[in-house]
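Hi all, long-time lurker, first post. I run a small reading group and we've been trying to get comfortable going from sequence to structure in the token notation. Rather than ask abstract questions, I figured I'd post a concrete chain and ask someone more experienced to write out its structure so we can walk through it together at our next meeting. Sequence below, copied exactly:
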Amino acid sequence: YTKVKIWGEELPFYKEQGILGLNVEGTKMWSILAASDYVFMKLAWNTGQDWKKLLRQFCEKAYGAGADAMEKYHLALIERQHGAGQEAGSYHAFHIIYDDAWVKDALALMDQAMSAAKTPEDKKRIGFTRHNVEALKLYLQYFKATQDFDFVAARKGLDAMRAHWDKAYAENTDLVSN
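-- Answer (accepted) --
Happy to help. Here is the structure in token form:
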């Protein structure tokens, strides 16, 4: 899930309408929201900026030499979400928006980014972002099991999602929301 394009289009509109401030939900989930948070903060300061340029700037700063592939990932995420018409948030529509092929393509972009990245720090941040795509993959498997009434597989899926969350939380509590 991303709000990069949402903020990119809405914050300038709000400013044009004379809105002086917003009360937005802030959650610590760097693996998912880092690009959105970056673009929001930059546009909140100056709504005259281009959100695509800000996304590029974020990718260069966060992923170093892996920026090209990670920018493609973020743009693919934006396009898929926007194209589905499901931008209200939460996971309730993820099974409508995403499928296994999209996840496979996203992970391939992250593999490209990881191969291109030069520093351990850039590789780590790419890994942080990869975490949320891996979580999506687990969720889609879990959701399918629930729709198939395969309760054993659904329980295994739930346990896998929890283990994945626990691993991220143990690594860095700012990666996932508790």
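A couple of things your group might point at:
The radius of gyration is 17 Å.
Helices lie at 4-16, 30-45, 51-63, 67-84, 94-97, 100-116, 120-147, 151-171.
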